[in-house]
Amino acid sequence: MTQYIEEAARMIRSRLPVTPQVGLVLGSGLQPLAQAIENPVRIPYDEVPHMSHTTAPGHIGQFVCGQIEGVHVICMQGRLHGYEGHAPADIVFPIRVMRALGVQALILTNASGGIRETFSVGDFMLIEDHLNFTGKSPLTGPNDPDVGPRFPDMTFVYAPALQQLAQEAATACGIALQRGVYVGVNGPQFETPAEIRAFRALGGDAVGMSTVFEAIAAAHCGLPVLGISMITNMAAGVLMQPLSGEEVNRTADARSKELQRLVREIIRRLA
User: Fold this and answer.
1) Is 124 left (phi over 0), alpha (psi -120 to 50) or beta?
2) CA–CA distance from 190 to each of 45, 92, 187, 236, 242 (Å)?
């Protein structure tokens, strides 16, 4: 594992003038955030050794490296999902590569369905914790101690210090920031109303098809995580209306500029 990670990191490092400080992963409909990156260096996934390719609609499939608010960043413009057929270890490979590059903090964004009935479409939710309902883990199989421990602690996957920083950034921007627990599922089908009722009973506040593997892998390799969900639709049964990917993308497009503003302020405070 270490050899593959280092080969990918070496290739990316050869294209960058400086070491990135912050990693970004952009969710469905949130790809325009990459346009905020100054002096961009774009590296398609298919040019990176051992890197899988994204097939999700709207996910471009490239690293974009440069500066946001004077901070050097590396951004995944398009992530990998289990529903595409990718193995969990392949999904988190780029997270491990970013850590090997020297990234000190990871910001995960996603589009999600609102489980908590007090949420509204377009809300932003700070992820405080997650429930992994994929039935899988990216840490399954032989462990490489050079990457992380066999049994990593998951108590502080979403770093409290980064949550506090994000809350302060949201207040400074005048943006309301909800807080809650993210439920990770495999997809690609949306959940049933019965599943949403079960997730709500277990303490879930939002649901989506990404993020949990990336957060687990980041915790495994000692990379602090900040997670932000955009509530792009209310989950099945909340409003008793059909769900669609088009609705998700419409909401994400409409709220993208506000999320950009929030993420820029967060990154500025990480300098």
Assistant:
1) beta
2) 27, 23, 6, 8, 10
**Model's pTM, two decimal places?**
0.94
- In this structure, how many other beta carbons lie within 10 angstroms of the beta carbon of residue 64? 23
How far is residue 57 from each of residues 62, 84, 173, measured CA to CA in Å? 14, 11, 31
Nearest by Cα to 159 from 228, 63, 111: 228
- Each residue's pLDDT tens digit in the chain (271 positions)? 789 999 999 999 999 999 999 999 988 666 777 888 999 999 999 999 999 987 766 668 899 999 999 999 999 998 999 999 999 999 999 999 999 999 999 999 999 999 999 999 999 999 999 999 999 999 999 999 999 999 999 999 999 999 999 999 999 999 999 999 999 999 999 999 999 999 999 999 999 999 999 999 999 999 999 999 999 987 776 766 676 677 777 777 778 889 989 999 999 999 7
DSSP state of 237: T
Question: CA dihedral defined by 263, 91, 155, 227, rounded to 10 degrees?
Answer: 10
| Secondary structure element (H or E) that encloses residue 92, with its range | helix 88-101
